[in-house]
Amino acid sequence: MAPIPTPQPEPQDSPEGYVGLDAPDAERRARARGWSTVRSLPPGAIVTMEYRAGRLNFEVKDGRVARAWKG
């Protein structure tokens, strides 16, 4: 049986620091800081409750990050 892989540690980065930034700039910054997946969503989007280590979610309104959270 193959061993269970150990997930990479998440970047030591606060999602709140992205709020108010231009969405494309925020995505570039997040990737540069080590987030493996960056997901931009419209306000009120329906998303699953699964948690993915290394993923940063942005709620984007009028081209700016209105909310950001891990997973």
From TrEMBL:
Annotated region (Disordered), positions in chain: 1-21
Annotated Pro residues bias: 1-12
Listed InterPro entries: Prot_inh_I78 (IPR021719)
One Pfam family here: Inhibitor_I78
Name listed for the protein in its UniProt record: I78 family peptidase inhibitor
Lineage: Bacteria, Bacillati, Actinomycetota, Actinomycetes, Kitasatosporales
